[in-house]
């Protein structure tokens, strides 16, 4: 009972603090503090609910138990991280995005291809491509190559659509100006159209970070060697070792956020000139 | 639209040509192997014909997949067994119902949360960053756990899958709707003020109508995500029913044609659902005088 009361009080205190902070003039500190306080109160509430109601750890482990498990099995988590993220997701991401970008440059040269491929690409981008996973696992074997292949297929079309859109982002006046400078196709592409396409390309790169992780993890549900985050999640669920599952989810969350954040930082450095970055 | 029809058809035709070609390339090894074992020396055309008609090919040819789809849908309907457990219609319906419920719940909650975020500064500052951060987390990885946990407390069948769909379709709607509800400019909001509109009137007559284009754009994303959620949600239940279960069962037994037909069915389902939202969007926006 005490835990529940404590959790309730913590929630109340956190909310009051946030209400007070929200009334303060807007600043960087408040914009950071409010969500942090919210997150902390949610975790406290979770812990108190698990202890107070005596929830079976098989159903929902307490945050403290997850933290203990996380600290206790860093070896396994690191091995899974290397297998799934570095080998599977990252290699697929680089290949898929790179391939899509090159395809976009080619498509951009031929209006016929553009008119034909773009609607098809848009269509494919909305399809449940994860379903390709069992087929690709069959083709490329159980190890990370098949996971990379799933990631390539998943990131390719969203990236392609964004890159093609980006390459069309220059207007006629700008292209005419390049012509008056006597710049050929290559020079125009390099000095005008690629830089102008960067905001779109980074949009694609950011969307596909999550897709890459999802693809690599879900592909492991269809068969994998005895390591990898998806493998660990599905087997640990079977063993009802939910604290390990949550530890993997924490890893996935950290990796996902770091991946996205890294691309966002890169975007800031590359497209410093864009209005959305100057605000 | 007319103008782009020929290029699209060309690309689609090219895809089919590549598909048939890939089927030859991928299945050739097996066909040759079979021929040498039987001690025959088939001609090239016979080998090609073989690659397009194997029972468990590495890559089934399009007509094989089409035949399988027809066998498990149209033919079964004709035989009056359209809803038997072996028909693809039955499995599609299982997936579709989970997708639909999850989508409706997710979109509903998403809209409510977006309204809360727009009208409550504390919620905006505390919840919104987490909504955005949650987009970067591979939520789908949690799917097996949700299924097992809900099973353990006695909830099984449709609801766990719908929960995953809801979770996935929830975030695009929140983000899009917050953007949409905030899209009226200061000038329009001031105009409402000069008409001494109440908060309710401001919401119903200005904010909600101007959020519609954003809402529909995010509903399309949410619908696609919802279907993916339902399919992935069917994987850990041990391949009972649904398109995801067909995928898993197919991959267990090497039934590639079955996998491909389930995949094509899922794609068709996604296309129809997204097109449906597009249609509703066109009708609504037209009646509102926005398109």
TrEMBL record, chain A:
InterPro entries reported in the protein's UniProt record: MetI-like, MetI-like_sf
UniProt keyword Membrane, yes or no: yes
Bilayer-crossing regions: 29-46, 90-108, 120-142, 148-169, 200-224, 244-266
Gene3D superfamilies linked to this entry: MetI-like
ABC transmembrane type-1 domain sequence ranges: 101-270
Transcription in keyword set: no
Membrane topology, record value: Multi-pass membrane protein
Annotated keywords: Cell membrane, Membrane, Transmembrane, Transmembrane helix, Transport
Source domain of life: Bacteria
PANTHER family associated with the record: ABC TRANSPORTER PERMEASE PROTEIN HI_0355-RELATED, ALKANE SULFONATE ABC TRANSPORTER-RELATED, MEMBRANE SUBUNIT
Listed name of the protein: ABC transporter permease
Compartments, as annotated in UniProt: Cell membrane
Pfam families documented for this protein: BPD_transp_1 (PF00528)
Source organism of the structure: Thalassovita aquimarina
Coiled-coil region list: none
UniProtKB/TrEMBL annotation, chain B:
UniProt membrane topology term: Multi-pass membrane protein
Keywords: Cell membrane, Membrane, Transmembrane, Transmembrane helix, Transport
A UniProt-annotated Pfam family: BPD_transp_1
Entries under Gene3D superfamilies matching the protein: MetI-like (1.10.3720.10)
SUPFAM superfamilies to which the protein is assigned, alphabetical: MetI-like
Compartments, record wording: Cell membrane
InterPro entries per record: MetI-like, MetI-like_sf
PROSITE patterns in UniProt: ABC_TM1
Transmembrane intervals: 6-30, 93-119, 139-159, 214-237, 257-280
Ranges where the ABC transmembrane type-1 domain occurs: 88-281
Family listed: Belongs to the binding-protein-dependent transport system permease family.
Protein name according to UniProt: ABC transporter permease
Species the sequence originates in: Thalassovita aquimarina
């Amino acid at each position: 009972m005490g835990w529940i009361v404590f959790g309730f009080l913590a929630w109340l205190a956190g909310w009051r603090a946030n209400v007070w902070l929200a009334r303060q003039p807007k600043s960087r500190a408040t914009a950071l503090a409010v969500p942090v306080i919210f997150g902390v109160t949610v975790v406290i509430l979770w812990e108190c609910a698990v202890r107070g109601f005596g929830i079976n750890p098989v159903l929902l482990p307490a945050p403290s138990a997850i933290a203990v498990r996380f600290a206790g099995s860093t070896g396994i988590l690191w091995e899974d991280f290397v297998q799934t993220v570095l080998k599977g997701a990252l290699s697929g991401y680089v290949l898929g995005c790179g391939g899509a970008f090159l395809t976009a440059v080619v498509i951009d040269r031929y209006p016929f291809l553009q008119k034909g491929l773009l609607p098809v690409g848009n269509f494919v981008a909305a399809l449940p491509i994860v379903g390709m996973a069992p087929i690709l696992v069959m083709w490329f074997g159980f190890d990370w190559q098949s996971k990379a292949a799933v990631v390539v297929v998943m990131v390719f079309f969203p990236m392609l659509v964004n890159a093609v859109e980006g390459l069309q982002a220059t207007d006629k006046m700008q292209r005419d100006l390049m012509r008056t400078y006597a710049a050929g196709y290559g020079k125009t592409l390099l000095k005008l159209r690629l830089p102008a396409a960067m905001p779109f390309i980074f949009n694609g790169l950011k969307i596909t970070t999550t897709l890459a992780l999802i693809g690599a993890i879900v592909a492991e549900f269809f068969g994998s060697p005895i390591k990898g985050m998806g493998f660990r999640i599905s087997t640990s669920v079977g063993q009802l070792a939910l604290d390990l599952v949550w530890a993997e989810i924490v890893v996935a969350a950290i990796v996902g956020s770091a991946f996205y954040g890294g691309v966002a930082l890169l975007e800031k450095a590359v497209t410093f000139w864009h209005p959305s970055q100057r605000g | 639209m007319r103008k782009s029809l020929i290029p699209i058809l060309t690309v689609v035709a090219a895809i089919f040509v590549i598909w048939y070609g890939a089927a030859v390339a991928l299945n050739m090894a097996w066909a040759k192997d079979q021929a040498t074992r039987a001690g025959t020396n088939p001609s090239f055309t016979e080998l090609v014909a073989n690659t397009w008609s194997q029972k468990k090919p590495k890559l089934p040819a399009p007509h094989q997949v089409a035949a399988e789809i027809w066998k498990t849908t149209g033919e079964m309907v004709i035989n009056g067994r359209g809803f038997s457990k072996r028909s693809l219609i039955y499995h599609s319906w299982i997936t579709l119902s989970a997708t639909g419920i999850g989508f409706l719940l997710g979109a509903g909650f998403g809209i409510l949360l977006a309204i809360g975020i727009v009208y409550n500064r504390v919620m905006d500052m505390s919840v919104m960053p987490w909504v955005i951060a949650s987009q970067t987390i591979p939520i789908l990885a949690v799917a097996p756990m949700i299924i097992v946990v809900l099973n353990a407390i006695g909830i099984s069948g449709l609801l766990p899958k719908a929960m995953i769909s809801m979770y996935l379709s929830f975030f695009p709607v929140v983000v899009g709707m917050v953007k949409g509800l905030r899209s009226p400019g200061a000038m329009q909001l001031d105009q409402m003020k000069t008409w001494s509109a109440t908060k309710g009137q401001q919401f119903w007559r200005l904010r909600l109508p101007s959020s519609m284009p954003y809402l529909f754009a995010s509903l399309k994303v949410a619908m696609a995500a919802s279907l993916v959620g339902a399919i992935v949600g069917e994987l850990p239940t041990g391949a009972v029913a649904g398109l995801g279960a067909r995928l898993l069962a197919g991959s267990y037994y090497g039934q590639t044609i079955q996998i491909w037909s389930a995949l094509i069915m899922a794609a068709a389902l996604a296309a129809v659902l997204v097109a449906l939202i597009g249609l509703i969007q066109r009708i609504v926006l037209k009646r509102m005088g926005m398109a």
